[in-house]
Amino acid sequence: MSNDRDTTTGEEKPITPRDRNISFERETNFAVPYSRENINRCRCPQCPVQADSKCVKDKLDNLKKEMDILPADEVPEPDDVPGAYCSTGRAVCKDLNPGRQCICNTCDVWKEYLLENGKPSQYFCQNGPAT
Ligand code: SF4
Ligand code: SF4
Fold this sequence. Notes:
binds iron/sulfur cluster; disordered N terminus
């Protein structure tokens, strides 16, 4: 059934749909793009903070397989990537050791996006994404 006839009065404004389902597009608004290039350049997989994390090891193993079959223009789900935290925010894995040294300042992504000036500027896996 159609309810179009009510629009003739001009008094009832159409309800604007909420955009809460467009989470997809929000991800493109990150200060650091969540791109395949940046995932590949990320140094987090070599970071001491993650070195003893079983959760991270498992994710890295799975990610290698996934990247092999994923089309070149697609990116994995952020939760499957134990890195690129400057883009996507805090780590899903909870067994990291933030008492060790963050190595983001050795990363080309960090240098390219001038993340030393960001807030936070390091330990994105703990502090959330660079803004
Ligand atoms: S700056 Fe840090 S979190 Fe961001 S890509 Fe580089 S190593 Fe990963
Ligand atoms: S954000 Fe920094 S501390 Fe966290 S895993 Fe990446 S390099 Fe290590």
